[in-house]
Amino acid sequence: MLEDKYHISCTGLYKIFKVSDLEVVALRGVDLAIEYGELLSIVGASGSGKSTLLNILAGYESPSAGDVNVGEFDLLGINQKEAVEYRKKEVGFVWQQTGKNLVPYLDVFSNIELPMMASELSGKERKLKVKELIEFLNLDSISTRLPENISGGEQQIAAIAVALANQPPLLLADEPTGELDDETSDMVLEKMRYVNKNFGTTVVIVTHDPKIEDHVNRSIGMRDGKVVKEVLKSRRSKNEYVVIDSFGGVQIPQEILSKSRIDSKASLTSDKSKISLNKILKRKK
Ligand code: ADP
Ligand code: MG
Over the stretch 34-67, which tens digit does the pLDDT of each residue have? Predict the structure, then answer.
């Protein structure tokens, strides 16, 4: 069944914002399928609809038309109460602005503990889980500091820990490295990769920066509210070897054609073996 294979599936997804008498069509028929355990980027210029798509996947916005399913949730038909529950359990979100990710007057430890307050965990269990996350993401040296006393990169890694606090199967990040220099960006993106690899969390990162493609396993493009291309990447070779256009047609890059050597292993599927749940973040069913 489609729902079993894909963690996220969107078909003909539209989002129209009404601003006084004007209608802004932010998404115009997005078709997208993301498997469990994928590490994927969505790359597009400013205004292409990336944040709108991510906000719909996070349950912050409701779509105007089309289908969108995440796990067992049908986000088109979801009511407000269900959306709150969905956000609490199913998704972690990292924003570009660190100010949106971390509470300024709480230290890193308490920031990570905060989303757990609404869970059924006892105080002792919560502290243990926070400690495990801190260790996992290497945040020991800054756990007692306030956000203003750590670097931008450290803030974003702390934000990843906050997003993972309730062990969501899906991590969404909207331009998470937008305010960071190249070196720090690499560090943050590699942490996301680490989370994906070790927890099996599905990770979707949106950005306007095509360099992100070096850090993910698959990258798709967005333009004018639509998915325009899909680039399959081999991390080993870092070469782009096949492009699927928005109509499903396959385009093979010229340099590969000229070498007449097409990787027969090129495949649309991701490595399922990545879904290895760490005992720390084992999801409670
Ligand atoms: P991106 O994240 O790729 O920069 P957005 O999803 O933020 O793109 O925006 C896509 C389009 O939708 C833009 O034209 C933007 O102005 C419009 N838009 C986004 N959010 C709203 C909103 N809340 N109200 C009206 N228009 C919006
Ligand atoms: Mg945006």
Answer: 999 999 999 999 999 999 999 999 999 999 999 9
- Number of residues that this document lists for the chain: 285
Give the number of other CB atoms < 10 A from CB of residue 155.
22
37 close to 272: Cβ distance less than 8 angstroms: yes
H/E stretch holding 25 reads strand 22-35
Model's pTM, two decimal places? 0.82
Minimal-distance CA residue to ligand 1 atom 16? 47
The two structure tokens encoding residue 228:
């325009």
Q: Is the CB of 2 under 6 A from ligand 1?
A: no
CB 67 within 8 A of CB 14: no
Nearest CA to ligand 1 atom 14: 47
Band (pLDDT 50/70/90 cuts) for residue 135 is: very high
State if residue 52 touches ligand 1 by the CB under 6 angstroms criterion: yes
Q: How many CB atoms lie within 10 A of CB 103?
A: 13
Computed from CA positions of residues 272, 276, 281, 282, in that sequence, does the dihedral angle turn out positive or negative?
positive
Pocket flag, ligand 1, residue 258 (CB < 6 Å): no
Q: What angle do CA 196, 211, 148 make, to 5 degrees?
A: 70
**Alpha-carbon span 28 to 13, nearest angstrom:** 7
Residue 10's DSSP bridge partners are 32, 68
Domains of the chain, first to last:
2-255 (3.40.50.300)
